Amino acid sequence: MPFWEPIPHIDRIREFFVGVDLGQSQDYSAVSILERTRMQLLVRHLERLPLDMSYPDQVEYIYRIMNREPLDKSRQTLVVDYTGVGRPVVDMIRRKVPDAVAISIHGGNASTWSRDGRNARVPKRDLINCLQVLAQDGKLKVAKKMQFGPVLTQELQSFKVKISERTAHDSYSAREGEHDDLVLAVAIAAWTAENHPRPRAFARLVSYGGDVEDYGRDS
């Protein structure tokens, strides 16, 4: 059974990026699904997983998403932020999705890829800047009726930059008491869509429009 009513007259192979920000303890895990079109990245699905969902259950849930229509018949890239949870959870995911991309977020200046293109170290600044550029250029679109669409916008707006007096380096973080799981789930997917070392033709606050598609438990 598909996640949504199929869109008619599609004569191309669709391409999706599934971003997963894995939470720790009382932090939410968030899942985003972005579709790359010729000119835009469309946020088709966005959700938070229950706080009490175990990592094995999360992995199984994500695997089911990757193997339901339309993702099962499309190009798909799973991107996971494993900064807090470590490699064991990534290893668990790769038993199900061997080519999953693992992102480690750090506070440095440079983004680097492993030789096989399956692991990347990325400054949080690069992730947030990527979303801001995409949004400002009108090339990131969030489905208008998506439940977490306004929350995503609020999270993005809540990020603030801090300049270290000692090093003069900048750092990005959500305001105290604010979550950043939805922003990071979208950001790692969008950043990978633009920066993955495979040759790709890719077209770039958040505009609203298009259709929400129910890929998971809820939308």
Keywords:
219 residues; two-stranded antiparallel sheet; alpha/beta; Nucleotidyltransferase, domain 5; 5 helices
Q: Which range does the strand content fall in?
A: 25-35%
Q: What's the CATH topology label?
A: Nucleotidyltransferase, domain 5
> What is the CATH top level name?
Alpha Beta
Task: Give the distance, in angstroms, between the N- and C-terminal Cα atoms.
Answer: 17 Å
Bin the helical content.
Answer: 25-40%
CATH architecture: 2-Layer Sandwich
Count of individual domains: 1
In total, the number of strands is 11
* Radius of gyration of CA atoms, rounded to a whole number: 16 Å
Helix-strand makeup class: alpha/beta
Describe what this molecule looks like in 3D:
This protein has 219 residues and is α/β, with parallel strands linked by helices. The protein has one domain (15-208): Nucleotidyltransferase, domain 5 (2-Layer Sandwich). It is 27% helix and 26% strand. It has five helices and eleven strands; from the N terminus they run βββαβαβββαβαββαβ. Strands 6-7-5-4-1-2-3-8-11 form a nine-stranded mixed sheet. Strands 9-10 form a two-stranded antiparallel ribbon. Strand 2 (30-36) and strand 3 form a beta hairpin. Helix 1 packs parallel to helix 2 (87-96) and helix 3 crosses helix 5 (181-195). The longest helix has 15 residues, at 181-195. The model is unreliable at 1-10, 162-177 and 199-208 (pLDDT under 50).
